[in-house]
Amino acid sequence: MGYVRLGTFGGKVGVVVGDSAGGMIGFCLAARHPGPLGHIAIIVTSHAMTEAAKAANLESARLRSAGRKTDAGAVMVTFLYPEIRAPWVTRLLASVAARVSFPAAYDPSDVLVGAEAVNAFDGRKILPTNCTLKLYKGKDHLGTMSDKRLPRDVLEFVRHPRPLRP
User: Fold this and answer.
1) Please, where are the H alpha helices in the chain?
2) pTM exceeds cut of 0.70
3) How does pLDDT run across 28-59, given as a tens digit for each residue?
4) Which of 63, 84, 131, 148 has CB atoms 3.0–4.6 Å from 68's, for a disulfide?
5) Structural domain total, the chain
């Protein structure tokens, strides 16, 4: 989820899409600053992370903050794909994940602060009482992100929103 200056769009943004940890930010935006938002679609996000996801997230952040991006990627690959048994496959995927997911320039302390913030997040108190939930049966986190139905479903949601009821 990127940052947008609202002044650029006349003080209103038509659609915000928040994914994964960015979706947690999206929950906060929707709950605390709904005025500037036309629609907000939160994808592959939960109200909170599982304890296993928190542990993997924090360990990956520690490794990234120490400059060990491939090792950090390996933690996430192992968490997301526990069925991979060959260490060389994990290492190969970790190398790709590190290049794709972890920016070249970052402040190492920001990585740990971000991981701790995501781990501490619990959105149950700020989530609306009525929303649209769409599940892709048999899809995991990354499978949902790459599902060809996702863009169409987000656009359908924007075109035909359902009014929220308290």
Assistant:
1) 21-32, 51-65, 69-80, 87-101, 108-120, 141-145, 149-159
2) yes
3) 888 887 777 777 888 888 888 899 999 999 99
4) 63
5) 2
Confirm whether 12 is domain-assigned: yes
Record the tokens describing residue 127, joined without a space: 């989530």
104 and 127 fall within a common domain? no
Q: Does residue 39 lie within any of the structural domains?
A: yes
Give the number of C-alpha atoms closer than 13 A to the C-alpha of residue 95, restricted to the C-beta side.
5
- The two structure tokens encoding residue 61: 């952040």
Q: 59 near 111, Cβ under 8 Å?
A: no
User: What's the one-letter identity of residue 80?
Assistant: L
**Domain encompassing residue 28:** 6-48+122-159
11 and 61 together in one domain: no
> What is the CA 125 to chain-centroid distance, rounded?
19
